[in-house]
């Protein structure tokens, strides 16, 4: 049950975030749908590939697919007056998708008896897979690699699940909300990780 | 039989289209071959991944691989006097590849008993997979996401096959020619889908 | 045994090369780790996909994963005074990774009884897979497609193994060193393959 709820939230959130990025890049109507779907199901496809479930299991998600289509259509038809805060909304949905899929990836890795390090990697790659595919297809550098603290929260989800801090459905939902909230806060307040630039770019720009 | 013919057409067409894009991007001789091969077999790899056939089935396509190599060599050695219409030729071969692989993807999804929505998605993703990989590796935004009506024709192929409008080999060939022709016409006449840009880019550029 | 040694070398080399590219692109601390890991294990994931081993076999590489983490941490904490030759070091590690994974890919294709053409393709795609993923995620055009002679050395590895010139562990290590050295020499001396640019870019820039 928790698994299905997280699937729905993650898929819808990434579908919307993909649609918003496609509109920002001036892609056409179908570009919006395709980028949304690839973002939404790309996360799941990466997860399936990484945990050894056939990618073709995606086809069994007919209802989820319809939900994604409806979500993207609503976003596409959103009234113009409500447009300005797109970027914030894009980040909001990206945060939900990250949190939902990071928890799913970690849960699966635990179920398959993997060690803690693998649980954390599964959380990070599953949570950020959809967003990475979205950004690459939009011709952008993946958000997860350079943005405000991002992957840290996926790691937190992996830790919480790998160390059995969160196991019951209620605990998982609390974890989901906490991870999403931390991601949103880190965006809102511009929390950053240290970075260490080298080479030409660093010389030229800093 | 029809399946093999479509495989050959799609592979050759995407190999040539990849080679042309690589030359446009000033990639070197091997870059041309690699981008051509990745484009040609990337479409098939995406199809295999999506429909649950092992990607390693690619290795059984030795003859197809030779055909792709020969096609790319011919393109690479093409006399200079005939160069100007490259862009048109690139689009021509891209259209053939799109049509051939979209039909293949849809046929496979039907054979596996998937519902209509999955047939359409299979047609779109299989038909555009090779081109998306090509564009990403060339550092471009994927044509399918922003170009003239593109995915619409793949959707049409999915519909025609999912609704059993085209089943016999003759019908499938007619469908193949129709989809490729529509894609070429939409390029020649600049048919476009509506697009709705938001955010900074829209403000800055339009 | 040889297989494990090549795995370790390839993984460490690509992890470091990914970390260096991430620092050049000013990615943050976690961006450095993620790009390094994706580069290191992306090569293996592409290899697994192409040769039909489940991608999830990656999770059994716990020790390899730790080795990659330690390597990236060392690179990240490297003293500033030793920074200037980053680009050269990046190419050095890229060359080691290319050589190690190209030989692995070719060995596997031979073991599975594939023909020579498939052995060569396996060497090229396995050897360059990690680097291609790295460059795409860094928003760069893949080095393998346009750089100095690059794929030629992977093809050489494929030929040497496909034609049974190198079979014993000693021969394989010699081949590994030779391929890496040729790649480094081709970078140092700027050996290039012919390229044939067409279209707008060629007109505009040359």
From TrEMBL, chains A, B, C:
Domain of life assignment: Bacteria
Entry's localization field: Cell membrane
Domain annotation Glycine transporter: ranges: 5-78, 92-161
Keyword terms of this UniProt record: Cell membrane, Membrane, Transmembrane, Transmembrane helix
Membrane topology qualifier: Multi-pass membrane protein
A matching Pfam family: Gly_transporter
Protein's UniProt name: Trimeric intracellular cation channel family protein
Organism in which the protein naturally occurs: Geobacillus jurassicus
């Amino acid at each position: 049950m928790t698994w299905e709820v997280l699937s729905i939230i993650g898929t819808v959130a990434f579908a919307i975030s993909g649609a918003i990025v496609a509109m920002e890049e001036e892609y056409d109507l179908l570009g919006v749908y395709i980028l949304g779907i690839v973002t939404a199901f790309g996360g799941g496809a990466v997860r399936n590939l990484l945990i050894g479930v056939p990618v073709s299991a995606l086809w069994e998600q007919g209802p989820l697919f319809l939900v994604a289509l409806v979500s993207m259509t609503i976003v596409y038809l959103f009234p113009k007056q409500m447009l300005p805060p797109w970027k914030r909304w894009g980040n909001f949905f990206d945060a939900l998708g990250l949190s939902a899929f990071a928890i799913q990836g970690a849960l699966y890795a635990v179920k398959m008896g993997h060690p803690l390090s693998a649980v954390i990697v599964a959380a990070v790659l599953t949570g950020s897979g959809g967003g990475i595919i979205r950004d690459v297809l939009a011709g952008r550098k993946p958000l997860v690699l350079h943005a405000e603290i991002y992957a840290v929260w996926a790691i937190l989800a992996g830790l919480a699940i790998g160390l059995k801090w969160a196991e019951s459905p209620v605990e998982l939902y609390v974890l989901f909300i906490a991870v999403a909230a931390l991601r949103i806060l880190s965006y809102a307040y511009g929390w950053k990780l240290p970075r260490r630039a080298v080479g030409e770019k660093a010389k030229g720009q800093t």
